[in-house]
Amino acid sequence: MDKIVDVEICTGTTCFVMGAGHLMSLAEELPERLKGSVSIRFARCLGVCSVPDNGRPPFATVNGALIENASVENLVAACDLLLSGEKGMNYETV
Ligand code: FES
Predict the structure, then answer these.
(1) Which uninterrupted H or E stretch holds 86?
(2) What pTM, to 2 d.p., does this model score?
(3) Buried b / exposed e along 3-13 (16+ C-beta atoms within 10 A)
(4) What is the mean pLDDT of residues 19-48?
(5) Pocket perturbation via mutation, ligand 1, pick of 49, 53, 54, 92 by most ligand atoms within 8 A of CB
(6) Please, what is the average pLDDT of the chain?
(7) pLDDT at 92 over 80
């Protein structure tokens, strides 16, 4: 069975104002190598925006690991890293 990476994108007000809108197109912008291996969900608020130590919105999670200042590029990179099986993904887990 192929590995599936779970991406959850926050579309809450804080994240949306800080740029989450561009993450809505992640599915269309996924490289061919990732299509079929990434599940994308949207959340109203991940509940981490009120804690300054969590970093800068917009937020997303990749297999439960928090990604701050999320962009299509860093979400694709996180998916690639997880699917490659390489060690080194060092994001705080929510
Ligand atoms: S609005 Fe995104 S974590 Fe709260």
Answers:
(1) none
(2) 0.87
(3) eebebbbbbbe
(4) 96
(5) 49
(6) 90
(7) no
